[in-house]
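Worked example

This section walks through a single chain of length 123. The input is the sequence exactly as stored; nothing has been trimmed or padded.
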Amino acid sequence: MPRPGPWDLKEKYDLIIPEVYGPDRIRLDGPLTDFWVLNWSRGGDQLTQIAPVTLSDRIDLLSVIMKSPAPFYQRTGGGFEPKGNTPDPTAYLDAMQGVRVCEVSGRIDLDAIVSAGRDLFHG
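Given that input, the structure is written out below as tokens.
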């Protein structure tokens, strides 16, 4: 796809993998072993870097991972989550124990992360 590619598309669609590639091509659950935080820049000129991080040392990256459960989340006691409520970082840090977290920074280079992803999955 020519540059600027998908960023300037007005309409984007998800690919329905089973319809295109056939059944049993994806798995909907499994253990989380690695998590990459995309902290790169579309207009950047620095090389793409993929570096391991410790989330407890990089709370700025943890804030990118944490998501509010939205106003429709109903707690066990029956109350609803207040709008704009920030999740508890401790729960995320606990859940991410044992998960390798990497920060992807620099310019957007899909070839670089595809290569690193292949190394990860085949290594």
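What to look for: The CA atoms of residues 43 and 107 lie 7 Å apart.
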